[in-house]
Design brief:
Blueprint: E1 4-10, E2 13-18, H1 19-36, H2 39-68, E3 74-80, E4 83-88, H3 95-122, H4 129-135, H5 139-154, H6 162-172, H7 177-201, H8 204-230, H9 235-238, H10 252-261, E5 267-270, E6 275-279, H11 281-290, E7 307-309, H12 314-323, E8 329-333, E9 336-341, H13 343-361
Parallel strand pairs: 2-3, 7-8
Antiparallel strand pairs: 1-2, 3-4, 5-6, 8-9
Helix pairs in contact: 1-2, 2-3, 2-5, 3-5, 3-6, 6-7, 7-8
């Protein structure tokens, strides 16, 4: 089942919505129907949540377009019920650049809030205390306030918030990058504990924020430590060099034989100079059940296979693998395919590098 749907391509960045986001819009529509009991009220509620998440997308574009100034590619932006996620190849190593990229998102929300304030003022929109108690005020007024809240919330100095990245960048001006990440993650988890305590006594939503901050900080720190372990490793260091490519005319019987004879699970299809697709293990099992083992590979609807250069740094490679649904990628050197690589290969390299690092530390 396809969970992410592409809805636009803006400034060479693909924009996706996750299926669960549509459920959120539907829930708001149902809630608005219960509140207003009219079609107009229902549509207004759904339009408001779409407008809100449009602001979230613009927030992510703030990050993406600022990162582009430093030659950092953003492959996609995905809209989830919890917000937007921009898939960047990497974050800037230079602390000042990271500060600029991190602050660009909240800055967009402040600009949106300011524009809405100007419009409300120009049109003499008056919000009374009764309006605030009844429904929070007019939709544009609420949208203005929420943008301010988004900006402030994102500036909390805790990963994965933008404020956590600003904190890390400031610390990195005085210490090594991985040490700054570790310190910022610890501070972020202190904020998580504080939110958790407040949540126990005041609002349960704060407990969810606490969990989000705690695991976000842990994930960021783990990612940084992995990057340190890998050092300057590239795709060439982790790729599988003993691999097989299926020809389009090969039958699934050959795929079975190669699977059982070795460790390769996914098979590129084509030649070492030109690949036409990828036969994954899951696709193989489905095809065996539906079509039988004598079916030619060319008769199947194959997934597209992405290729990466063998000199691509592991950090960027991980982003590419994640962006392609954690599938297998082909590694090229010049015009030839010289290997294949997936997440398991990278994890094996990490284990080996960690063991060597511990040996050197003894």
């Amino acid at each position: 089942m396809k969970w992410n749907w592409k809805i636009a391509r803006i400034a060479e960045i693909d924009v996706y919505i996750h299926l669960t986001f549509l459920l959120l819009v539907a829930w708001f529509g149902f809630h608005s129907w219960q509140q207003y009991g009219t079609l107009a009220g229902t549509l207004q509620g759904m339009a408001f949540i779409v407008a809100l998440f449009t602001c979230v997308v613009l927030h992510e574009f703030g990050h993406a377009l600022t990162a582009r100034r430093y030659n950092i590619v953003t492959r996609s932006i995905t809209l989830l019920p919890i917000g937007g996620v921009a898939t960047m190849e990497k974050m800037p190593e230079d602390p000042l650049q990271e500060v600029k990229v991190a602050l660009a998102g909240p800055a967009v929300n402040i600009v949106i809030a300011f524009i809405l304030w100007l419009w409300l003022s120009a049109n003499n929109v008056v919000v009374t205390e009764a309006d605030l108690l009844n429904n929070g005020g007019p939709p544009l007024y609420r949208l203005m306030l929420i943008n301010v809240v988004l900006a402030v919330f994102n500036l909390i100095p805790a990963f994965p918030m933008d404020g956590g990245r600003v904190l890390r960048a400031v610390l990195a001006m005085r210490m090594k990058h991985h040490e700054a990440t570790d310190k910022a993650a610890s501070i972020g988890q202190m904020f998580a504990l504080w939110f958790g305590l407040l949540g126990l006594f005041y609002n349960p939503i704060l407990l969810l924020i606490a969990v989000f901050l705690w695991f976000g900080a842990a994930a960021e720190n783990q990612s940084e430590q992995i990057k340190v372990s890998l050092g300057k490793a590239t795709a060439a260091d982790a790729m599988l060099t003993e691999f097989h490519i299926l020809a389009p005319e090969d039958s699934l019987t050959k795929a079975i034989q190669l699977t059982l004879a070795g460790s390769q699970k996914d098979f590129p299809v084509g030649t070492h100079q030109h690949l036409t697709g990828l036969l994954t293990q899951n696709d193989l099992l489905v095809a065996l059940q539906e079509k039988g083992q004598h079916t030619a590979v060319s008769a199947l609807h194959l997934q597209a296979i992405q290729t990466v250069d063998y000199n691509l740094p592991i950090e960027q490679l991980l982003t590419r693998i994640e962006a392609n649904g954690n599938t297998t990628l082909a590694v090229r050197k010049g015009s030839n395919i010289v290997g294949i690589i997936n997440l398991d290969n990278i994890l094996e390299l990490i284990k080996i590098q960690n063991a060597l690092h511990k040996r050197r530390s003894m």
